[in-house]
What does this fold into?
Amino acid sequence: MADQLDTLKRLQAIDGELFRLRKEEKEKPKELERAAAQVAAQEAAVKAAESKLTALQLTQKEKEGELQTREAQVKKLQGQLFQVKTNKEYSAMQHEIEALKADNSLLEEAILKTFDAVDQAAKARKAEQAKLAGQQEQLRRERERIERELSTIRAQIGKLELDRKTLTPDAPKASLAIYERILGIREGLAMVPLVNDSCGGCHRRLPPQVINQVYLKANLVTCESCSRILYFDEAHSKL
Ligand SMILES: [Zn+2]
It folds into this structure.
């Protein structure tokens, strides 16, 4: 039985590490979530900057079209000016032309402002695109780092699994089955030492007859409250 316990303890050392590594392997890809969320948010920012630019370019085109129409109107009126018959009609038309010209110069100013706005929006879009490129690069690097770390973890797991295979034939099938069942339900910790007359797993105080059985090493003794296999280890006992 003492040999069995030793084998199980050695298995526990491997399995504890395997449990930790498998958990890490599962959790590792989550480290990408933050960088991926940043990229997604930045993609939205680029889209918004693009929409703003497109809208401003459209406004600019519309205003330019309007100005052309109005300028054509002024020309047309100027042509008609020489066909009017009375002074009154003439001055009325001239008045109309002046009003149109004043409106047009306001429109020209507005177009110039739109030019500036388009220019700024184009710069803003470029800045957002550059930021996105940076974040995409960061995401790519993060992905590479995680892949590297995962391959290290997987290599460690593979090695430990081999070590485990060389050990399992030394443990009786029945004991191994009990051990593995507890390992599964107790998150990778099936073997625990006595710690000052208490279970090293759940810290519940153990009855004297259980402690005696553990000392005797005659059979596998489990904790009544957490089911873990108990063993005696001087390092953990009272001095
Ligand atoms: Zn316990």
